[in-house]
Inverse folding.
């Protein structure tokens, strides 16, 4: 039995693949041989750098600007992938945004913004991508511990991630007969640009590191390694699960 992972001849889309965790996943999939489309919204320079990193692995890369919170943008993005690659095997729904405030300070706009981008994306993304996934494939959504834990200022994002994880389970039972594996990865604290928006960033990082049994923070590469595993044949019987990657942080009382 060949124990190495090869994704050659496969095409992947990583939303929010231009920076942080998404970039690490995109590069890891390219290292395994996949051609990778990445999506971004604002920072073209970061997207260009990720394209360079993917191409450095000998894979084809495509950067697509699209707001994953807008249904129309999602349809156009999938069209671009069809035009460039003709198919899709791996869909990584990673892009996220959200308003960090106490629940009672959230406005209707804050709530819908966060829900639309984090929870509302996966369904239209999957519906549009499905016709390109004729040979089966893999869907992975990136979630966070706030889906099941209460974290200060995280009410909207936490609720959106809980909805995302529920959707994963429902999609999993509908798509399993089509040969599509659907799972989520839930990450502990990862030091990316996203943390700049937390009012207590330094405290959060120190506390996470101190409390994590493995004695270190989770890195983008930790997440990318599990994403690669979920895209490989080695995880074929894992369906509808949320896999926590946090060095044991969340099992502590
Ligand atoms: N960092 C953590 O501690 C942590 C922990 C658990 C889970 N996560 C999850 O991991 C995922 C990635 O987080 P990260 O920390 O890597 O974030 P990040 O470094 O802030 O990167 C966010 C990425 O998403 C893109 N993006 C944001 N809004 C978008 C939109 N509306 N449409 C399309 N693309 C959009 C950004 O593109 P532009 O730069 O062009 O805007 C960027 O590529 C998210 O789902 C997050 O919830 C993160």
């Amino acid at each position: 039995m060949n124990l190495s992972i090869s994704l050659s001849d496969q095409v992947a889309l990583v939303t929010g693949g231009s920076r942080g965790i998404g970039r690490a996943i995109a590069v890891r999939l390219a290292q395994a041989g996949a051609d990778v489309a990445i999506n971004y919204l604002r920072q073209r320079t970061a997207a260009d750098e990720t394209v360079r990193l993917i191409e450095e692995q000998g894979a084809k890369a495509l950067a697509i600007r699209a707001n994953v919170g807008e249904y129309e943008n999602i349809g156009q993005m999938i069209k671009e992938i069809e035009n460039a690659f003709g198919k899709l095997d791996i869909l990584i729904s990673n892009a996220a945004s959200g308003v960090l405030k106490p629940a009672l300070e959230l406005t209707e706009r804050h709530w819908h913004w966060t829900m639309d981008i984090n929870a509302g994306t996966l369904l239209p993304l999957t519906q549009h991508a499905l016709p390109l996934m004729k040979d089966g494939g893999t869907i992975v959504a990136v979630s966070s511990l706030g889906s099941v834990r209460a974290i200060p200022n995280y009410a909207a994002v936490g609720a959106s991630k809980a909805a995302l994880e529920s959707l994963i389970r429902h999609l999993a039972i509908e798509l399993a007969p089509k040969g599509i594996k659907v799972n989520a990865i839930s990450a502990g604290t990862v030091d990316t640009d996203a943390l700049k928006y937390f009012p207590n960033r330094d405290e959060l990082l120190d506390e996470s590191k101190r409390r994590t049994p493995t004695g270190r923070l989770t890195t983008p590469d930790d997440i990318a390694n599990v994403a690669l595993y979920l895209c490989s044949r080695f995880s074929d019987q894992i369906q509808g699960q949320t896999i926590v990657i946090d060095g044991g942080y969340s099992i502590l009382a």
